[in-house]
């Protein structure tokens, strides 16, 4: 009964506070408004002149009519503007600024509640306050206000209690609900021990003799954390398979993160199949709780050291900029079967793929990749191909640099020859690249290199048309395309010729022809297709 009366008292006080501030509209620190308390002798015209505004503007901002008048102590919302030079400097501001004279404390608290976007509950009898603040945050204004009248406040999430120390603490704990949680596998004592271990700030825990429930009293945030803990722990895999009893002890170790969130790390842990249990709290994304043996914990700490770096921090943006700033960066783990990270990294370090690849353990088979999703997919496909090359213990690899022919041409010739137990691939863009990755038994490396040297010979030069244009400035255009191709391929400029008009009609026609090896002609045509096809 006492609790019901107490809730009724708080509700009445809150309603009175809201009704008393009916003329005050929302004012945030950056909204460009100040709050002005009407003093004796003030008129709307004088106030408007002081703040370079108009009477109509003040009336409109405060939902007042033309017949409205102001009285001493009224609080007016005024559009921010530079005041007259002879006006007191206390009116110049960029944060919360107000000058309250003999104002009802509930009016001031209501204004601060709107600015802070929180619910403020006042637990004492109303008093009159005189307070002037300039260019401060709403939180600082609240501290100055409570100190000026000898009161305190307690804040939790979106609720603030203001009053004497005795009242706010009594009301704070009385307002905390008691919530029941159902348990399916673990005993209440196990959950209670973990609540203490994780320092979840619930005020009271009640154990159930049937061991099916546990009750807790706390703030909504604390109860949310407890709910997340129970969801994470109260699972079938926490039952001892031999005794069919819940495990009685957990050793959860917190890992604090600086730059990445716990859910990102948790995803990587599962992708890399590190044998451990993890617990996350949405309310605390900077910490992940883990249960792992010494070996798994070592892998975890190496993973954290590699991943939790400033380069992986998602940029902080203002709420109004969130739609304009889009971060497509992802972190994805990769587990290989045949090739270790020490053998993989030298193969991919010079690739033109915008993905950062870091190994957790150079002798292991786990890596993680950071980049946009499209680039990660490309790198993942390449690693899969490389991983397949090393399915045999006697397989070795080497990179062969071609001089005269393209990688795609070399691949076609090797496929035609059909060397046994030899696989070749181009690391990137075979139609332009001149590098091959060769996988073969160690005792055949020299033989394969000799074959490639014999294949990598310049063919006999032939003449072929590679491009044409019928534009009015065709010759100039073809010359510019020729110069670009020379820059991209290194083929001598002397190999190219731009013809005169060879049209059989009145429409002009110019052609670009080249005298080069068949392989270089194919390369030139690939470049032209790339240009024309964007």
Description:
The protein has 534 residues and is of the alpha+beta class. Among the domains are: 2-172, Phage tail protein beta-alpha-beta fold (3-Layer(bab) Sandwich); 176-238, Ribosomal Protein S8, Chain: A, domain 1; 253-312, Ribosomal Protein S8, Chain: A, domain 1, CATH 3.30.1370; 462-532. It has helices spanning 2-20, 44-50, 55-61, 105-116, 138-148, 165-174, 188-197, 220-233, 262-271, 294-307, 341-348, 373-389, 407-417, 445-455, 474-489, 518-532; strands at 33-37, 75-79, 96-104, 119-122, 128-136, 152-156, 159-163, 178-182, 204-207, 213-217, 253-256, 276-280, 287-292, 330-335, 356-359, 366-371, 395-401, 423-425, 435-441, 462-469, 496-498, 510-516. Helix 15 (474-489) crosses helix 16. The termini are far apart.
Which CATH architecture of the domain at 2-172? 3-Layer(bab) Sandwich
Shape: flat
Rg over CA atoms, rounded to whole Å, is 37 Å
Q: How much helical structure, as a percent, in the residues? A: 25-40%
CATH class wording of the domain at 2-172 = Alpha Beta
Secondary structure: number of strands? 22
